[in-house]
Structures are given as structure tokens and as C-alpha cells.
Fold VOC domain-containing protein.
Amino acid sequence: MTAHLFAITFDAREPMRLAQFWSGLLGRGIVDDPHDGVLLLPATDNAFHIRFAPNQQPKVVQNRMHFDLTSSSLEDQRQTVARALELGARHADIGQGPEIDHVVLADPEGNEFDVIAPGNNFLAGCGFVGALACDGSQAVGYFWSRALGWPLVWDQDEETAIQSPDGGTKITWGGPPHAPNGGRDRVRFDLAPAVDTDWQVEVDRLLSLGATRVDTGQDGPGRLVLADPDGQEFSLLTHR
């Protein structure tokens, strides 16, 4: 059996403050993370936690991953934007033109996210967190499809997307050009081995798929840091 996506991890100067923002926006409960940090519990439309890990290094470039939040109507989109701003978000300029119908925001620590306009067929049925949109190659989309056991739901013009067989949030990769990460990636995957799966067997499987070991010394006990074929860091929990 393959590892499962336990959490999307955000580095944060103030983990609890950032968790409170996303809890208020997404309507998810907050719990302590025994591996250091704060967790948002999964919602029914999403199988993974969201983790906020302490890290005092400043954000210097646009993140290579961001959430796309869905809307059921223009009024719903407006209300989501208003709620986000009230909780501490701000409008963000990432070079989007006036023809773009989604709204680009940044959370209180500058992490970008989009509030998508209604009528997006690609995200229909995915839930409020419609997608985790990533900068990355076609090859890395193939890697994560095999690593997580999630089928490809889009593979065209070097763009890829995967989705759990149970539905929910899609993970997408936009193909070239690829943005620099400006150092350590501040948004990452946390994987957990499947129940009754030998941890070292899972490490070896991920390495055989194209992952590499990364010795950062920053994620603390209980996790091994690896990198996918694009060099994007992720962690494999040693136990949960």
C-alpha cells in the first residue's frame, strides 16, 4: 500500500495565529501537532490536515503551492473575499491582469491563495478547497500520482492534475516555466505510511520512484525530509 497525504505544511513565524486565520476561513478545528506545530483537522471535502510549523525565516518569493478556493456564485465569491480580509488577509499582486476573474489574496504571513469565480467546471464537486495548485513539471505530476496512488485527472500541454479516488481537492502542476523557490519551500507535503506498512519499505519505494534524500535538520523529530524529482521538499512521518 502507498503512503497517504497526511497534511499540507506551511512554515509560519506564528503558527497559532496562522492556524486561526485558516480555521476561520475554512471552518476547521485546531489541534496541537505532537511533532511540533499546529494542525487543522480535515473537513468532509478534504482528506488531509493543514499543518503550521514554526520557522522564523522570512518569506522572500511567491510560494510554489497555493490553495484555490471555490465559489458557488459571485455573491459567494464576494463573501469569501470579505471574510478573508476581515480575518487578516490582503489583496496580492502576482502579475495577474484585469481579465482574470479570480481574486488573488495573501494570508497574514504572505502565503498566496485564490478565490475562484463560480462556474469553474474543472473544480466542480471538489469542495471549498478545490485545488492545491503547484508550480511543477509533468514528470513530477506522474511521480505524485504513483507516490500517492491518485489517478491522473488531467494530462495535457505539460500540465497535470491528480485526485484521490475518493474525490475532494485536486492537486495540479502547471508545467514550465518553473518558478524559483528562493531557498527552502515554505509549503510542503507531509506523508504518512499506510497502516501495517514497513517504514523503510516505504522510504525505498519513494526513492525508487525518483525521490531523493534531503538533510535539512529543520523539520524536527518524527519525520524524514525528501525531495520530489523537481526538488520540492516533502516529509515522510516515521510514525503517527
Remarks:
- The helical segments are 15-26, 74-87, 138-148, 199-209.
- Residues 4-173 form a domain with the 2,3-Dihydroxybiphenyl 1,2-Dioxygenase; domain 1 fold (CATH 3.10.180.10).
- The mean pLDDT is 90.
- The chain has one domain: 4-173.
